[in-house]
Amino acid sequence: MYTLKQANTYIEKNRKRVIADYRNDYHAMAPIGWINDPNGFIYYKGEYHLFYQYYPYKAVWGPMHWGHSKSKDLVKWETVPVALAPDHSYDKDGCFSGTAIEKDGKLYLMYTGHIEGETEEDIRQVQCIAVSSDGIHFEKVEQNPVITEADLPENAKPQDFRDPKVVKNGDFYYSLIASKKEDGGGQILLYKSKDFLDWEFVSVMLNGEKEEGPMWECPDIFELDGKDVLLLSVDGLPKKENNFLNTHSVLAIVGEMDWEKGIFHKETVEELDYGLDFYAPQTIEDDKNRRIMISWMQMWGRNIPTETEQHGWAGSMTLPRELFIKNNHVYQRPVAEIKNYYTNKQSYKTIKLYDETKAFEELSAEVSAIELVLDVKAGKRFDIEVRSNQIEKTLVSYDCETSFLELNRINSGIELVGNEEEHVYKRSVYCEPENNKIELEIFLDRASMEVFANQGKYTLTSTIYPTQKADNIKITAEGQVEVDRLDTWDIEV
Ligand code: FRU
């Protein structure tokens, strides 16, 4: 069996061997090895704690541990010792995703213990608890597992029962757990407890239709601006027009949660991010009453160059984003703290482009933030090239006639291919101009790009792997496009 000691010793010994070329500067990452979902994200005793699905020994998914980083400002992250290893009979094949809560000054984690057997039918997923008084060292409680197969309602598969999200409401702790139904489709099961150890089944909180995907994962729930929001990560959500083109998609479901009856009434459902690499987000409320979300910036089933080229690591988190709701739509804004790391500002104003390309030669943008306001009332199209050089570029384009904003990484660098039936290398979103303007904030790190459009109304998040220095910006206009404002900053952490 794996142990914590073995994991921490391995990391200490080997972390210097990692090849740093594509390692992001201002995004949370593990020192070595593989990461996926953020876990146990919480603001605890004055610091942000972020755990994550972790296999330290290789840059591929393996028996899951919980890696751990902490931060004072959501930008600079410090790696601390691994929090959980799969070292008990009830989690022997992995400590899967889960969440955290503070209770009586202690930090409690609820996670899924994954147990394998001879066949797929023998798999069992159970819910377990670990507790810490210092936020660093965790003990698994002796009552584990605290929710098992015996607590499942009819029609729920014991093989796919995972990713508890814990919240407090009134006198009770609640746990929302993703479940696969025997007859297909996903559902969210609700459990409650007074003491966080003894749990009882309450209800099927949300019942998925077959066309809503075979497996729901990583639920999150919160109240924001007078609405209740449920985030769901869905494995295998069928493609619908321009939506859900990746193998795994994230849904933002806005509605109302009836805690008495344990039922979520959904009003609107939208895809949360329109990029190529965004999955399994988690949110917290911090001491400033902000709702902040962080997500895995990667997609299942794709080649990851830092793995194939043997750099010794794979995976990064997104920039933490503050959430808002307007008209039942979830807006995402980069957390304000990132601005504390802006340097070397360069600004341009009122550049009129008419069927032409302008290269901003004096500008270089690699690890940087770019803000643009473009007036499109007389335009047909614009293409913004970032991280470009003679042969590579990543494109953010806008079609003024159809109002689609698109991110295209076909020429970004190392080719990224996935399990999708058709090669997915671009994504787009319908994004109407506001007062004839399209406003963009683009965050670039060594191997990533996050686009926030129209004050965070839509986001597009993707990894990119330029093979050589790529830091130019060019804008091409078809018809007349006016760049009202272009500001760039380097981001130095
Ligand atoms: C989502 C997920 C979770 C699971 C974890 C395993 O990406 O599949 O459902 O708990 O990853 O690493």
Automatic annotation (TrEMBL):
Pathway(s) it belongs to: Glycan biosynthesis; sucrose metabolism
EC number: 3.2.1.26
Location within or outside the cell: Cytoplasm
GO cellular component: cytoplasm
Database matches in Pfam families: Glyco_hydro_32C, Glyco_hydro_32N
Record domain Glycosyl hydrolase family 32 C-terminal: where: 338-490
Functional summary from the UniProt entry: Enables the bacterium to metabolize sucrose as a sole carbon source.
NCBIfam families, alphabetized: scrB_fam
Similarity comment: Belongs to the glycosyl hydrolase 32 family.
Protein name as it appears in the record: Sucrose-6-phosphate hydrolase
